[in-house]
Design goal:
By secondary structure, this protein is α+β, with helices and mostly antiparallel strands. About 25% of the residues lie in helices and about 35% in strands.
Amino acid sequence: MTGIVPVVLCGGSGSRLWPLSRALLPKQFLPLVSDRTMLQDTVLRLHGLDGGSAPVAISNSEQRFLVAEQLREIGVAPRMHLLEPEGRNTAPAVALAALALLKTDPEALMLVLPADHMIGDNERFHAAIRIAAEQARHGRLATFGVRPDEPATGYGYIRRGAKLGERAYEVAQFVEKPEIERARAFVASGEYYWNSGMFLFGARFYLEELERHRPDIAKACRLAFDRGAKDLDFFRPEEKAFLACPPDSVDYAVMEKTRHACVVEADFPWSDIGSWAALWTAGDKDAAGNVVRGDVYLDDSAGSYVRAESRLVAAIGVKNLVIVETDDAVLVADKARAQEVKEVVERLSRQARTEHVSHSRVHRPWGYYESIDAGERFQVKRLMLKPGARISLQLHRRRAEHWVVVSGKARVTRGEEQLVLQPNESTYIPVGFKHRLENIGTEPLLVIEVQSGDYLGEDDIERFDDDYKRS
């Protein structure tokens, strides 16, 4: 029997979960509902599934090493990691995965999953997948419908039709996000499900239906895949061909047009964690209905979500609030208006600020750096390099750097010379000098970097050799 291959969509910005979710580290890469990231939870809950749990991962190029590192941390090697040159919504991404799977298995079944959903019961989740797989083997394209427990207006809905089998129905209608009165009628009827955005279908059949209903997308994806190339552990579709592909979702491009759609009732706890209010709903609550993460003190407070990332947060006499603290931003919002956080992100973007782009800690394939202090003509960072890792051989045209080793053992390339630095030793990199920092020890290398110059932006970098093939 043909196995089921998970296809994990790792894109998305998660702007409604600011200030924790940022453009460079969105919600799927954060530990929001457990001690693991949402991507890691998504992959780990597939253990025991027919066909194994090694997924096809799809991400943008900038986050490729973040995805790879998080999968490595849980001991999972993806069977392929596809890199989109630019997001084109889900229909093209899934088409690329289908083309990749058909190279080795013409009967492959694809389980398409966003990387940022919460699912509360793995056993029932697997049971629903097996039902959907049986429908897929009979030529259906299955989606998973969640029975609504409230008239939510933030989800699309699916009206079920004739019964096909255990918890499986024909799709009678897809409905856009409704107004509240219409949503109440949907819930009361018992005939509607929330559209979860998860799918299971044959790779070959998905491509056939895409070619039937959106031949322009199918043609562009096939061309981009055929012209693509392997890059380290990744596969890059050809950029020009992929950027010519029109954007569209699996729902609009295929599911709403095909005559072969079915919906499988998902009888497991589910949330797309689309807001802080949703995270409060999904969390473990105390006797007063509060969800707390981090170093938090509460007194006479109820119904609130309070999260501290870097310092103590104390709240007294608050009701139904969202309070989220990070080291560079604090959010305080009425829980009922949590969706409006997206407007804060849009305002930050218009003002050309950076608090919506990255945290003070920025992840890189070699480790990370953290901003400690900055002022006119200077900036101080803390660098962490993983054992065996090194930054690119590079130079800066407008800034000098002073490196001080705090712990670990470093090899430094500075111009034509190389030197080894131990803790409490330092070196100076003049403007225009080629340089490289490498961890030659067995423990993480921690370095304080002091930059000085008339321009300190990250784009003042010229790379000559890079283990990670960054431009």
